[in-house]
Amino acid sequence: METIDIPGGDGVLDLTEAFGDVKYQNRKLSFDFSTIAPKSQFMDVFSRVQNLLHGRRMDIRLSDDPAWYYTGRVSVNEWKADKSVGTFTVDCDCEPYKQKVSDTTILHRFSGKNLFNCAAPQLATAYNTSVTSLSTGVRITSLSPGQWRFAQFKIAPIKMLAGLTITCSYKAAATTGAAERVGLGYFKSPYNPLSIVAYSTVSSNTVSLKVDAKQAEAFDSVGLWLYSSRDVDGVANAYVDYTDVQVEIGSTATAFEAYDGTTKTAVLTADNSRKPVIPLIMATAPATVTKDGFTASIAADAENRIPEFEMKEGNHVFTVSGSGLFAIQYR
Fold it and tell me: What is the C-alpha to C-alpha distance for residues 221 and 223, in angstroms, rounded to an integer?
């Protein structure tokens, strides 16, 4: 609270909201701990606790409030011994707001359930492979004998799909000397060594991947790999036609649906609690976003934090136009 006492007057002037929203001081948290280690080990225990905690800035989660966390500076108070029990207090000088452990993500698909554009797939890289777009899919042709040859396609940034499962389903027809195989995994632009987590098998024309948010520390995108040829009998110019290629959100493959790359408009509503936040906005294709009369252009695969889109407490309406996949993410 911000108040001014008026000498000779009744009460005070309350200026708490004179300059906008209410502002809060840090939150004080205090935790009491005890140990029944042998008394001769009390000081060793206390020293280990101090070394681990004292003076460090940490995220703090409580067992009775596991979906949220606090962030602050930790200090360890003096040790006290009461007969066979040693006690100490950990004090935390924390930021005013607690925050959710997981981000809130509003994910919208402009182009139906299929995230893979078979008419003009976005090729990230090719390894000794010729890639041809067909009316219904992609042809992967080996340019030399032996080994697997692959083409790598970008699906979406990892942060857009973090925590979700995606599934690729397809049909494949291989010529003599070629064999089909499909993989889902992560990569970083420009080309990096393969990091494929999930493969299709000979008996299955589907492959699924649960997108791990931690992979965003080393990679930037989720990718699809289509293969031709193999070590045993691969020959030059052998090819595989992949048709009805579909990448969708979920663990179960559904009936093929062609990619719809036309520009569409949607209205998305995001609800925020008390702490103001600037959301992270991403799209797999160029898009425009309007909120409260302000319009911004969003580039494909870029991470955008636009100050004019700050969200205070309450509902916020975004009008977005584009194709592919679009996400609003905030904590």
Answer: 6
pLDDT above 70 as % of the chain: 98
**Average pLDDT, integer, range 219-236:** 83
Distance CA 309, CA 320 (A): 13
CB 296 within 8 A of CB 264: no
Pairwise CA distance, residues 15 & 286, whole Å: 44
The residues with which 35 forms a beta bridge, in sequence order, are 86
pLDDT band for 193, please (50, 70, 90 cuts). low
- Of 256, 229, 234, 252, the C-alpha closest to 243 is 256
248 CB contacts (<8 Å, ≥6 apart)?
113, 114, 115, 166, 167, 169, 254
89 strand-pairing partners? 32
Instruction: State whether residue 29 is helix, strand or coil.
Output: strand
What whole-number distance in Å separates Cα of residue 41 and Cα of residue 47? 10
pLDDT tens-digit profile of 239-256? 999 999 999 999 999 999
β-strands 12-14, 57-62 pairing: unpaired
Bond into 66 cis (ω within 30)? no
Q: Which amino acid is at 32?
A: D
Q: In whole angstroms, give the CA distance from residue 55 to residue 53.
A: 6
Q: How confident is the model at residue 232 (pLDDT cuts 50, 70, 90)?
A: low
CA distances from 172 to 138, 177, 198, 201, 254 (A): 10, 14, 18, 12, 17
pLDDT surpassing 90 at residue 19: no
How is residue 26 annotated by DSSP?
A: P
Question: What 3-state class would DSSP assign to 319?
Answer: strand
Sign of CA dihedral 143, 231, 191, 282: positive
Structure tokens at 203: 């008996």
The pTM (predicted TM-score) of the whole model is 0.81
Q: What phi and psi values does residue 322 have, to the nearest 5 degrees? A: 170, -160
How far apart are the C-alpha atoms of 283 and 12, rounded to whole Å? 51
What is the pLDDT at residue 135? 85
